[in-house]
Amino acid sequence: MSEAPNYKAELVGVFGHPVAENPTIVMIEAAFRDLGLNWRYLTLEVVPEGLEAAVSGMRAMHFQGINLTIPHKIEVIKYLDRVAPDAQLMGAVNTVRKEGNELIGENTDGKGFLRSLSEDAGVDPKGKRVVFLGAGGAARAMTVELAMAGAASITIINRNSERGNSLATLLNENTETKATYLPWQPGISIAEGTDVLVNATSIGLYPNTFDKPDIDYDSISESMVVCDVIPNPPQTVFLDEAAKRGAHTLDGLGMLVYQGAIGFRMWTGLEPSVEVMRSSLEEAFK
Ligand code: NDP
Question: Which atom of ligand 1 is nearest to the CA of 259?
């Protein structure tokens, strides 16, 4: 006897505003096709006043999960059943997964960065001295995961002192790492002995591809691993300058792919091909 047909796809997606330029659909749907899954990823415009109804809607329509982007990462927490401890500490959720009938908030940004650092650059964060440029949402997620993974120290260089100080305080009060805030002076030097330097600002993001953080590039040495969060373009001027000083570099496309792959696994229980996901984005960013 032949099996009854099943025309029902499983649904996931992203809530954002504005959301039209969010490229996540490209890599997630490429991974669905690659694994032959009848799943769909929907890019959904949700205004702030509509977030509560949108979460009720995803429950009613049995979505398997959702990503959150600007401006919903913080607000969504009040509509969820539970939040993972690291996301709780960051105060932000970028991925919701379902466990039974419960919606659980996760944050995969920092986990994606850690996986890229380990798999693409061969770096174990344990005991490392790390310097961050920026203290926004991405920096929060990345520094919390680095601190939880045993980084020895994290120095936060940020323009806005309130944001910089509050991130350093969050890390000092909740993790074993030694965090310090430094005000961003133009042409600031990166301390000797730094193992990992990260640009976690939005400087260099398309279309401002010629911009670079205002630091003393000659203070970068070949013993440093220099990372960028900017996924588009993957090869930023910041990374070019670091490579010229002999540093090992790591682009932001890896982090984007891995954070998506971690979410994909939370939703489907399957490991997607990161190569398929990365090449689909490279094609889209051409
Ligand atoms: P936020 O708006 O939360 O933070 C932006 C940060 O950049 C702040 O620290 C801000 O400093 C700093 N900044 C912006 N412009 C300047 C400037 N001209 N000089 C000095 N500092 C500046 O953004 P997010 O943290 O959410 O995102 C940051 C970047 O990370 C984005 O480009 C985003 O695309 C990328 N990203 C990449 C991911 C990936 O997977 N590769 C994942 C998530 C984000 P201040 O506080 O002083 O304003």
Answer: 40
